[in-house]
Structures are given as C-alpha cells and as structure tokens.
Give the backbone structure.
Amino acid sequence: MTPEDAGIEPHDTAAITAFEDALHEFTEELNRLHIVHGAPTYATVAGASVRPRLTKAGLNELLAGKRFTSLEALLEFVRVVTTPRDMEPAAAAGFRADPATVDDWRRRWQDVKLLQRQAQPGSKRLRATVRQTLDDASQEAETLRGDARAEADRIRASAETEAEQLRARARQDADELLHRARQEANGDHGTPDASEGSPNGRAAGAGSNGRSWRARRDHLLRPALRPVAAATAVAALTLAAILAGDSFTGPSDGCKTGRTQAAEQLVHRAAPPGGVMAAQAGGTMAVQGGGTMRLAAFAHKPEAFIPGPIAPLRGFPGPSVSTSLDPFPDPTPDPSPDPSPVRSISPTPSPDPTPSPSPTPSPSPTPTVPGKPDPCAPQARGR
C-alpha cells in the first residue's frame, strides 16, 4: 500500500521518508563503531554495561535498525564499546568515554529524534489507516468465509439429496433384479410365484408359501431319493434271487430232485445191451458191459445267477435227450436193493463172453448200494 492509497498527505509522506533515511544512516554508523572496536559479542557488551543495563535483545534491535533507542542506552553502548580490552573489570566499570565521541553521538541522536517527531503524525495516520484496512480486510474475509460456508452447506445438501435419490433408485433396481431372479428360479423349479414382488402380492401369496415350499422341497429331494430307491430295488431283487435259488437247488441233505432221478433213469435205460450201470461218487453213472462207457454228471444248483429283473432262468438241469422210448420215466426208484454186486470199472472194457440173444434191450433195475436206503423214497411217495 502506498501513502497515496492510504490517504496520507504529501508532507506526512516526506517526513516519514526523511526519518526512515536518517534512522538507516544512524544504524550504519553504530555498526561501524561496533566493528572498529573489535565487534564484541552482545553478551560481552550486556555484561559490561552498568547504567542502564543493556540486553542482548535491545542490542539486536539497535544494530538492526528495528527500533530507535534512547539517549542513555546509546551513550552506555558507546562507553562499553570504546573501553580498552586489557582493562580490569573493576576499572572498566568506572571508565569514561571520550567526551568528543560522546558529544558527536549525542548530536546525531538529536537529529534523528527531531525527524522522528516530525514523522509521528503521518506515522500515526498511516498506522490507523493500515489498521482500518486490516479491519476491513478481516471483515471482508469473514464475509467471504460466511458466503463460502453457506455455499458449501448448499452444495453438501444438494449432494446429500442427490445421493439419497441415487440410493433409492439403486434400491429399486436391486428389488426388481431380485424379483426377476426369484421368478426365474421359481419358473425353473416349476412353481411360478408372480405375486411375490409387490407388498400386496406378498400378503396375498402368503397362503401359498407352504405349498410352494413343499413343491420346491420335493423337487430338490427327488434326485437324491433316486439312488436310495435303486439300492432298495437291487437289495429286494437280490433277496428274491437267493430265495429262488434255494427253491431250485432243493434241500441240502443230498436228496435228489425228480429231474435228477429222471435223468438217471434215462441214462440207465439208454445203456447198451449187456451193459451194467454203476453209481459213482459225485452223481456220476458209469456203463459196464460190452458197450462203451459213458459218464453223466448233474449239478444240484444253477450254473449262474445274476440279480436283475425276473426273466426265464437258464442253465438248470433238465431231462436229457435219450434214445429211450419212454418219454415220461418213473421218477420213483425201486426201493428193493439189487443183490448183485457192482463190478469195478476197468480202463479197457472187455466184451461180454455171453451176449444176450434178445435183440430188444431190456432195461435193468436201477443199481443201488446194498444196505443203504434211498433218502428220497419218502418224498417221492409223498408226491
């Protein structure tokens, strides 16, 4: 700010400028005096001063030209600085400075003091103007601060309103997406529920929630129950197969079924003329005599059984194809034992020396072990 802008008169400006120039020149002469006499430290000068007591802060302002000092402080500074350094402290305290030097600095101080008084009115008006300007600036800044605060509040309120609208819109979009996903899920499960989106629809469809939940539960549990049902069916078929196998194989005490006995009779009747049938271990029948030896074995249990659907069973023993003329042999064996002993089977059968002259072969009775009753006779008679 220039003096013209502050409303200061021209003569006030000249007085202020003259005082500032004189103070600047006075400060330079003091610094020259301090340097000429060895430039003692501020602490040394303050410690050697007597009256008035100088301070380091005062000395700093004096030599920096920040403040115009008093005449007593100026003369004490001149006395301490001009005191010889080899003098004892007690003698230095009573040392008197050169009167000519003291008079010279007194005159200089008086000149600067006169200029200071001439510039005081202008300086006061300048300080008042500066103070007023600062007050105005502070008030204007406060007004601007208030306007900025109000604008910030308005912007924040607008942002909050817009944010609330965005949240409401996002919530609505989320509800729509959730409702659409729920409808698609219900459509996939076969239980559409179109009234679940709106509040009125939820209240109206509250009664059907139980049915819808049960339908969804059945739909979810159906794939899990299929393996259990399949395992149960396999177990039932296995049990039925075991029971059916027991019924086909017959009792475990070695009693032969009607088919086995019929097969033995058919084999016996199919023996060549002059041959003799002999029973061997394991259900094998051997032919002895002039014919060729034939072996026949019959199993008492099926060849194989695979659990599965009920189907015609194969592999069970049946009536053998024979050359016998009797298609329905008597399954009941002869209970009377054969007194003739059973001859051993030789590796090479020899022809019978006395063949039978009869051209028609006659079946011989079923050979049995002497002295051993047939265990199947009571069952045959029961049938």
Q: What stands out?
A: Residues 99-189 form the longest helix (91 residues). Residues 19 and 117 are 9 Å apart (CA to CA).
